[in-house]
Every structure is written in structure tokens, then in C-alpha cells.
Amino acid sequence: MIKHKKSFHSHTYLCRHAEGIPLDYLKEAFKQGYQALGISEHAPMPYLKSANSVRMDMSEFPLYLSLLEEGESFAKKHNIAFYKGLEIEYFTEVDIYESYLRDLDYLILGQHYIIENNKFKSTFRLERYEQVELYRNLVMDALKTGYFNMLCHPEICFNNILNPSKEMYELLRPVIKLAKELNIPIELNANGIRKAFKEYNSLDERYYRYPRIEFLKMVKEEGAPVIIGSDTHKVNYLHDWAVEKAYQIAHRLELNIVYDLKMNYYFK
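User: That's the sequence. What structure does it adopt?
Assistant: C-alpha cells below.
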């Protein structure tokens, strides 16, 4: 069992593909002996509508804030460090990040879309080298803004690519180097482990669409910081076998594990 029980990547029912409210996760965190918990729901975005079933609507953001405040009261009573955040994509055309950071403690970068030929393209469905390159460039632009304190599931660009070539993997090396330079932790995502088990009924790491072991070996080579992310969409996933497996992988590969994220960092 791990000693540092902290989690910063958690979702609620508002994203339409998860369960629970912040208070539910805090109660589970208290039961599990957690020292810190962050809720990072999928952010409402002007150009990405809730109809795609992966995020709250813009009109629901005040409700999200009130649910976070409810959770904060519980956290204070039970001595849990509680942080309010969002998981969000980056697009240069969108001017919403500073507004969110005024209301919240942090933003984590989860780049679920690229823009190709002036259209949104899901990073779950990338197929070609050029698309991965677009993803890489967008992620690097995002990290340079200072808006984000964690890079979520960076290998999500390989979700639809069974066996990425060495050249494809190498496209992401500049991302790793930049994350190290900026001291932004790279996430080793436990939810990808859960998904692989659900799809293949196997714990074989070769079935992981993310995390990718070859990518993590590059992270090790560059010495970039790594944080384990539960990416929990159910309360009982906050600290489950997949989180333990993620830590096992990180220790086996001798990754530079960190347990904390900088908070309230942008306006300092």
C-alpha cells in the first residue's frame, strides 16, 4: 500500500459519464485515510457542447462551484486538504482559462481534441503521424501558457493506434522535456488500466491504450516528474487495484514520482 494518499484527478456526475458529487469522494477519501483530494471535473467549453456526453454545460458551472463548497466544509472538519479544479482542453482561440483560475485552485490539461482542417478531431481516434504531431504541438503550446499544473494521460493520442512506431513515440519526447523544464508532472493514468481490463479481461500491460510502457520509458530517460492519477469516475475507484497497479509500474520503471501539485499558482 502507498503511504502518500493524495489524488487530484476525479470526476462527478456532471460530466455525464461519471457518478457522485464531491462530498461522496471526500467521504471515501476520509475512509481511505487520504491527506489530500482534488476534484477536476471536465470543464464546460464554449465550442464543445454537453451533447457529446463528456462535460457539464456552461450553465451548470455555478452548481459545480456550490457542490465544491459543500465538499470543502466536510474536508475542513475532517482535516483533508481539498482542492477545486477542472480538467480542460487547450485551444488558442478560447479565452476562458484565467476566468476559471480565479474561481478554482488549479487546471489539469486533458487534451481530448485537436483541430484538423478547422474541425474538432477526438484524440481517442487519431490514426496518422501528422495527427499525433498536431496533438504534440497543441499540448506544448498549452504547457507554455502557465495555466496548467498537470498533464493528464499524454499517451491518449495513441488510443486508436495499436502499435505506434518509434517515430510516433519520439514525437512526444519534446513534450516530456518541456514538462520537466516547467516542472509540470506527467500523469500515469490508472483509468486506462481499468479500461484495458474491462475490454480484454486481462492485466497484460500490452493491452493498455494508455498508459504506454514505451512512453513511460522515455519519461524515465528524461527524468520528468510523474504523478499517479486515479482519474476516478466512480467513488469506489478513488483508490482501487488500478491505482495500486499504476504505482507498481512507476516503481518498477523507477520513475520520478511526485505526490503533490502546485496550487493557486497562476496569479502569483
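The chain has nine helices and nine strands.
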